Structure formats: structure tokens, C-alpha cells
Amino acid sequence: MSLNKSETWKWKNWEISWSLSKNSTSEKNTKILLVHGFGASKKHWRHNQDFLGKFSNCYAIDLLGFGKSSQPSALLNYEPDKKNSIKYSFDLWGNQISTFCAEVIKSPVYLVGNSIGGVIALKAAEILKDNCKGVILIDCAQRTMDDKRLKQSDILMNLLRPVLKTIVRQRVISNTLFTRAANPKVIKKILEQAYPSGKNIDEELIEILYKPSQRKNSKEAFRGFINLFDDYLATDLFDKVDAPIQLIWGEKDPWESLNEAKEWKQQFSNIQRLDIIHGAGHCPHDEEPEQTNELINEFIQETK
């Protein structure tokens, strides 16, 4: 387990926090960048970064709005531009990751993303083109609330959709939802859903998720994200990525469908592997890190 020292990279007007695995050296040709999911941070890779760092220079990064990175205010589509405000989106985060690769890593890279970090990794891979050697998606977000996934036959949801959008646009509503979720007891209950085996739900993990939520502007990325009703789906991006793709999936993920992941594997030729981790949930890299680390390493050795 490792909580590596944070470094800071200046991107546009913001400070981005990142870390590098121990024992890194210029002699290691393989580079890996770990991209966390919603509400998490680079520290969520506590059981992965230094293991993968034995074979590569392994980086982890805090997305804008999360962890120790800057937290500009959320700007929604209908709102006028304001100083220190940004429209949170997969384009924004994808550009953050691709620019970090170009300016800091300066080498072809494998991108590893969990949950929404998977969609971000795909968008970054599209931008990086040949400078992305492979993409590893761990329980990639399927974004079932996106407008593009709404079935015309679902009359009730079509009727409620405009009301839902109007409600979550209100900052007082998003702030209230965030505040209720951002306490250790609620975080633990959410983790018990996400980690069905209960493995590695410990005080350190709760602190990793809780501490960044107490920063002054931590509510803003939450507001921006819950208002993303029309952004990229993973299926929009697979065909735009030339690099080989690996899917790693927790068998008991309560939020992202394993059956849908199996459909992706059948549908898209650049998805070379679907590896299922039995008994695990939404974050198998932290719940079952030994298996996940070995699967990532196998894929990299096969494709590098």
C-alpha cells in the first residue's frame, strides 16, 4: 500500500495534483497513468500504483475538481461566464489527461480508468492517438442517465426528465445532496454497496474519500457532473481509439452492468479482453487489488 508524495502541475490557471510510483527510473520504457472515478482521487490507487511501478513508471492524477487539484466553480450551459468557473465535462477532463501525458509524462502511455475515469481515459486516448499504447477500463461508467440512453418507450421518465434537470441545476439542491453524502457514515454505507465482499473498507479508505469533500469548493465538481445529461458514452468513443482495450469488471458491480460489458466485448473489435473478478463490485482495483494488478500487468505485457 502506498500514499505517494503529491506533486503539482500547472494546467491553464489551475493546479493539478499528481504522484509517481516509488522506484521510478528513466530506464523503464513503459508508462502508466491511473485515472480515478467520481468522488475519488489519486489515492484510490493506494494498492495499485507501486505494484505497477515495479514494471513501469506509474503515475496517478487528481482530476480537476477532485482530490487536491483546483476546484473551480461549476458553470452550466445556460449560465454566463464567470471568473474561476468552468464547464465540467469529459472534453475538459480528457484534455487534462492528454495534456498531462504530453507535458509531464512525455512518452507513449497506458491509460487506466475506473468508472467515469474510464470514459475520460477513452477521450484522452482519442486525442493522444499513437501516443496511447492501450486503455484499461475498470468497471467503466455506462452513464445510464444520459439523454442518449433514454428510451422513447419510457413515457414516465420522458415526462419527469425536464423536472429532474430543473431541480439538479439549482445550486441549493446540489449542495444539499452533496453535504448529506459527504460524511463518514454515509460514505461507509456507499462503500458497502460498491465493495460487496467488504474487503479493504477501512478507515484509510473512508478518509481518502471524506477529506477532499471538506475543501471549500468540493461541491462544484459534483454539481457539474450531475448536470451532464448529454456527454460522451463509452460506446461513442470505442471506435475512435486505435489502441487495444482491456475491460476489467467486478462480477457484482451494483451500478455498471456486466452484461452490457459483455455486449461491448462482442461489438467492438479493439476490446481484446474482458476479465471478470468474481465477488467484486464497482472498484475491484481496491477491493481485489492483487487480481486486478496481475490482469493489468498481463495485458500490458501482451500489448507493449
From TrEMBL:
<keyword id="KW-0378">Hydrolase</keyword>
<protein>
    <submittedName>
        <fullName>Possible alpha/beta hydrolase superfamily</fullName>
    </submittedName>
</protein>
<dbReference type="InterPro" id="IPR000073">
    <property type="entry name" value="AB_hydrolase_1"/>
</dbReference>
<feature type="domain" description="AB hydrolase-1">
    <location>
        <begin position="32"/>
        <end position="289"/>
    </location>
</feature>
<dbReference type="Pfam" id="PF00561">
    <property type="entry name" value="Abhydrolase_1"/>
</dbReference>
<dbReference type="GO" id="GO:0016787">
    <property type="term" value="F:hydrolase activity"/>
</dbReference>
<dbReference type="InterPro" id="IPR029058">
    <property type="entry name" value="AB_hydrolase_fold"/>
</dbReference>
